[in-house]
UniProtKB/TrEMBL annotation, chain A:
Membrane topology: Multi-pass membrane protein
Record-linked InterPro entries: ABC_transp_permease (IPR001851)
Entry GO CC: plasma membrane
Cellular localization per UniProt: Cell membrane
Protein name in the entry: ABC transporter permease
TM region positions: 6-27, 34-55, 61-83, 90-109, 193-215, 227-251, 290-308
Superkingdom per UniProt: Archaea
GO molecular-function terms, A-Z: transmembrane transporter activity
Key words of the record: Cell membrane, Membrane, Transmembrane, Transmembrane helix
Matching Pfam families: BPD_transp_2
Automatic annotation (TrEMBL), chain B:
A matching Pfam family: ABC_tran
Gene3D superfamilies (UniProt xref): P-loop containing nucleotide triphosphate hydrolases
PANTHER family linked to this entry: CARBOHYDRATE TRANSPORT ATP-BINDING PROTEIN MG119-RELATED, GALACTOFURANOSE TRANSPORTER ATP-BINDING PROTEIN YTFR
Record protein name field: ATP-binding cassette domain-containing protein
Keyword Plastid annotated: no
Region (Disordered): 515-555
Length: 330, 555
């Protein structure tokens, strides 16, 4: 059991990184007032771009950088459509996901079957090699891939950026009331572009983590809806960076559970009361196919809870989300 | 010219598609004065000020501040030149604090990077341009700004906590934050766009005190308004705009309100309305023991009896929220009474659908004209014909005859002097100014020659010219034999227009009088519930079967 738990925690940390990176990226974009439903597409782009470049250069670091750039490039399309052309953000975002899925399926077929080493798990510098010895938690917390550490470091950095810098204050004001921000000398267009493109880079990194650190290969549609979960995660987190971390671990654990529970069989002894009734239920719940739906079920539950619990006053959605801005209209 | 004036706007022209908003307008403001900018809605005041604040670029004309020519491409340019503006709709982010709202855009770096602070970072590093620009973006120092904001607030008696969130503040406090935003940027000229529109009278008094303190320190203020008594109470000199052109500049102490009104409207304005006598006809509205709930399900009307006869104006006075809206809606047929009966023109319509009220000749001017009075996104034509389009004369071979509808809408626009309509089928009702939209609604409601008109706050928030027009239109309709229920918070309007006055308090009529006998103090007392202690009987209004005047005589 301890072994299972240690394995589960280890997988949770790795799976959570996808949600942390993609969630933070979406958070930055939405705080500036631009919803980007293209996370899934940008992640696929980042995953394939990162993987292909790693195969060619044999360096996962260059691959990661390539993944980030692909994410940014895709986000730039969304930014141009929504900010400059004032297109509907929802439609543009869905389009971006379809575009990312289509492009990666088309160009990705050449890369299916290739294998790379990707990012190796390394202990935390200095103290890591001793702490790894801690039972159950050690491996999970102190021996991880560089992208896991990167994601963890980005949580406080994003919080700092949003809440403790002038740039963050301006970004939030642009997401709350672009007209007001404009009259205060804040460049609405520049900041929105910056936020969307940066957010795209985060999503690209999330995809690259998936193919370079988590799986080590490329397969079509490998994000499997995790980009959509990241969008939901931002709502769950009530647009706060620190809560993204919490939610990412919750969803990460549900994903890990599915991976790690294969072959796991739990059943009550034949003498236990109601064993005849409960055993089939337990078996059903632990069925891998069923378990793979848990993250999505959890998304629905968590969103319902978040929306019911917070009335509209407390719901922290940026006031100008989905609202294009132009100076001329008055 | 001896010394140049502080601000000079010369020959400003700004044209929007189809409209000349400003036509060679001049404005001169002296240092340390409160300069009023007076004009009807749509006279070009806001356009002129948006030009001065860098939001619009003028087509022609020049702006000089302290003798220097200004070229303003953005609000930032205006702020840099020392011009601040407080908009009518506050530009504040409720989720952020006072200090955060004030410093937004100023890029205040964290304390160790401030040039004036004690800091472990050597001066040479701090003053480095790269270090400065990184610190300005990637840090935020609120301590020193908060202290400065608090000092400013305290100095002008603003009663504000710089650390409070905007969402916790009331309207008056939010307005003071807006002023602080300008003061924090060391402006010399402050533009206030109809600042009292959102304030209670007490809050407005406080604002005026603060403005006096600001001008004592050499600040100049441009005060946009269309209220004449405000001009009289705090403005030094006033510039009047009419239809985009200068209509004169005056020293306020040397002119009367009537002079100002004439300059603003372009003709003499009748503050005294002559009301002719009219013979009262049959009752057109009879409410008996009406009880009704408000939207939250709490009883808002507790047993109201009201009879309005053809050709009679019944004015209902009261502090807002005492059941006026519910009473208006019951009379117009869009709210069901919980008990009691409603008769219109002799027919019992208790519980009938709104459409039946409309067909029985009930017209309604609702309080919220944008929300309930019109379909803001539809054209003037659609709005003008909303109640009449079922009429036979609009029947075409296939459905509606749009040419006929258009022609009818054009007649109404003409007759009721609705301005700002380029094309009745294109211009949206929501794009009309408040006064003109109200005239359009009134045109729609009156042209059908209704038996009963329910008018809820018909002149609130509209300019002097439109007020006069609307009041006269109501009285004309009275001469045509329409019974009118008039709700207004303006006691002058009630006494000028009504044949009978009823005071409503907590869902009941507590006092009845006539304009001739009306004593304002008594009405004011009754409006606030103060008259009940005297043991007066609540008027039942059941005697109104006689003539209105006679029923007054009895009491």
């Amino acid at each position: 059991m301890a072994g299972f738990l240690a394995g589960l925690l280890d997988a949770t940390v790795a799976a959570a990184t996808v949600f942390i990176l993609a969630g933070l990226g979406e958070l930055i974009s939405e705080r500036a007032g631009v919803l980007n439903l293209g996370v899934e597409g940008m992640m696929l782009g980042g995953a394939l771009g990162g993987f292909a470049v790693t195969v060619v250069t044999n360096s996962p670091w260059i691959g990661l950088a390539a993944g980030v750039l692909v994410g940014m490039a895709l986000a730039l399309i969304h930014a141009f459509l929504c900010i400059t052309l004032k297109a509907n953000q929802v439609i543009s975002g869905v389009m971006l996901t379809l575009l990312g899925t289509g492009l990666t399926t088309f160009y990705g077929s050449d890369w299916v079957g290739e294998r790379i080493d990707g990012f190796a798990e390394v202990p935390v510098p200095l103290v890591g090699q001793y702490l790894v010895e801690i039972p159950v938690l050690g491996e999970a917390l102190f021996r991880n891939t560089p992208t896991d550490y990167l994601a963890l470091a980005l949580v406080p950095l994003t919080w700092y950026l949003l809440n403790r810098t002038n740039l963050g204050l301006e970004l939030i004001s642009v997401g709350e009331d672009p007209e007001m921000a404009d009259t205060m000398g804040v460049s609405v267009f520049k900041l929105r572009y910056l936020a969307v493109v940066f957010g795209g880079g985060f999503a690209g990194a999330a995809g690259a983590h998936l193919s370079l650190a988590l799986v080590g290969n490329w397969s079509n549609g490998m994000t499997a809806g995790q980009g959509w979960i990241a969008v939901a995660l931002v709502i769950f987190a009530q647009w706060r960076a620190t809560r993204i971390l919490l939610g990412a671990y919750l969803f990460g654990m549900l994903s890990a559970l599915e991976l790690r529970s294969q072959g796991l069989s739990v059943s009550l002894g034949p003498d236990a009361p109601l064993a005849g009734v409960l055993n089939p239920i337990i078996e059903f719940l632990l069925n891998t196919q069923i378990m793979s739906t848990y993250p999505y079920l959890a998304t629905i539950l968590v969103l319902s809870y978040a929306v019911i619990r917070s009335n509209s006053d407390r719901l922290a959605v940026p006031s100008a989300l989905l609202e294009p801005y132009s100076r001329e209209t008055d | 010219m001896a010394e140049p004036v502080f601000l000079e706007m010369a020959g400003i022209r700004k044209e929007f598609p189809g409209v000349v908003a400003n036509d060679r307008v001049d404005l001169r403001v002296e240092r340390g004065e409160i300069h009023g900018l007076l004009g009807e809605n749509g006279a070009g005041k806001s356009t002129l000020m948006k030009i001065l604040y860098g939001l619009y670029t003028p087509d022609e004309g020049e702006i000089y501040l302290d003798g220097d020519r200004l070229d303003l491409d953005s609000p930032q340019d205006a702020i840099d030149a020392g011009i601040g503006m407080v908009h009518q709709h506050f530009q504040l982010i409720p989720r952020l604090t006072v200090a955060e709202n004030v410093v937004l855009g100023e890029r205040e770096p964290a304390t160790p990077f401030r040039p004036d602070a004690e800091s472990p970072i050597p001066e040479a590093v701090r003053s480095n341009r790269v270090v400065q620009s990184v610190a300005e973006r990637f840090s935020l120092g609120l301590d020193a700004p908060t202290r400065r904001i608090q000092r400013l607030a305290d100095r002008y008696g603003f009663d504000l906590d710089a650390g409070a969130k905007i969402s916790e503040l009331d309207v008056g406090q939010r307005q003071r934050v807006e002023i602080l935003k300008a003061l924090y940027r060391d402006v010399d000229l402050l533009i206030l766009d109809e600042p009292t529109a959102v304030l209670t009278p007490t809050e407005a008094e406080r604002l005026f005190d603060s403005l006096d303190r600001l001008t004592d320190e050499g600040l100049s203020i441009i005060f946009i308004t269309h209220k004449l008594d405000e001009v009289e109470s705090i403005v030094d000199r006033v510039t009047i705009l009419r239809e985009g052109k200068n209509a004169g500049t005056a020293v306020v102490s040397e002119v009367t309100q009537a002079d100002l009104a004439e300059m603003m409207v372009g003709r003499e304005v009748l503050f005294q309305i002559e009301k002719e006598g009219v013979d009262l006809g049959e009752p057109v509205l009879q409410l008996q023991n009406v009880h009704a709930d408000d939207d939250r399900g709490i009883e808002a009307l507790s047993g109201v009896d009201l009879t309005v006869r053809a050709g009679e104006v019944v004015g209902i006075a009261g502090v807002s929220g005492n059941g006026q809206n519910e009473l208006a809606e019951v009379a117009a047929g869009i709210r069901q009474p919980t008990t009691g009966s409603v008769r219109v023109d002799g027919t019992d319509l208790t519980g009938a659908a709104p459409r039946q009220f409309v067909d029985s000749g009930v017209s309604f001017v609702p309080e919220d004209r944008l929300e309930y009075g019109c379909a803001a996104d539809l054209s003037v034509m659609h709005n003008a014909t909303l109640k009449e389009f079922r009429d036979q004369r609009f029947d075409g071979p296939l459905g509606l005859d749009y040419d006929e509808l258009e022609a009818y809408a054009e007649t109404l626009v003409e007759e009721f002097d609705v301005r700002g309509v380029e094309d009745v089928t294109e211009t949206k009702a929501g794009d009309l100014s408040g006064g003109n939209l109200q005239k359009l609604i009134l045109a729609r409601e009156l042209d059908r020659n209704p038996a009963l008109l329910v008018a809820n706050q018909p002149t609130r928030g509209v300019d002097v010219g439109a007020i006069e027009f609307i009041r006269e239109a109501l009285l004309d309709q009275r001469m045509n034999g329409t019974g009118i229920v008039l709700f207004s918070e303006d006691l002058d309007e009630i006494t000028d227009l009504s044949d009978r006055i009823l005071v409503i308090y907590e869902g009941e009529f507590v006092y009845e009088t006539t304009p001739e006998e009306a004593d304002r103090d008594r009405i004011g007392l009754e409006m606030t519930g103060g008259g009940r202690a005297g043991g007066d009987q609540r008027p039942s209004d059941r005697h109104a079967d006689v003539t209105a005047a006679a029923s007054e005589g009895e009491r």
